[in-house]
Amino acid sequence: MRIITIALRLFIIMTLATGVVYPLLITAIGQLAMPARASGSIVSIAGRTIGSQLIGQKFEEAKYFWPRPSAVDYNPLPSGGSNLSWTSSELRQQVTKRREMLINSTAPSGDSIVPIDLLFSSGSGLDPHISPEAARFQISRILPARGLDAGHRNELIALVDSHTEPRDLGFLGEPRVDVLMLNLALDSLTASPEK
Prior knowledge:
Layout: H1 2-33, H2 35-38, E1 42-45, E2 48-52, H3 89-105, E3 129-130, H4 132-137, H5 139-145, H6 153-162, E4 164-165, E5 176-178, H7 179-191
């Protein structure tokens, strides 16, 4: 009976420590140290929530930068990759179709080298970032879709460069661009009176 009592006490203590105290402590530290990130990095405009900087969103209109493909159609509930291997004929067909669509959408540039992150989905299917190269690749499609001439190319390149996030701590990961934030900046840029 003594062992059962000790086990029950230990169970209650560990449940409180790991199920109540620890989560509340970590939540409090997160809210104090980085409140925006701890709350999901929600992006709002005029009181209307339009997305999160942490979760990729579907942009299909030609006038926007497109994100990486998503195996889960940008649905955060069943997040995950396609689990298709490099030898999969289905993956090969998907990549070929994406490549053709991207090349055709940027036909005026004649660019046939598509950045790899526009061809393959991320492991989570929800990556909010693309490479700066993937963003620059799309400028040829965005210019005519927004009614801009080739003279605005350098302006859009500068926009991509200004939204490029460096490697974490200077050596972890790769430079990247948050697609949602870039598209919001693009809307602001092209909505200005001089455009």
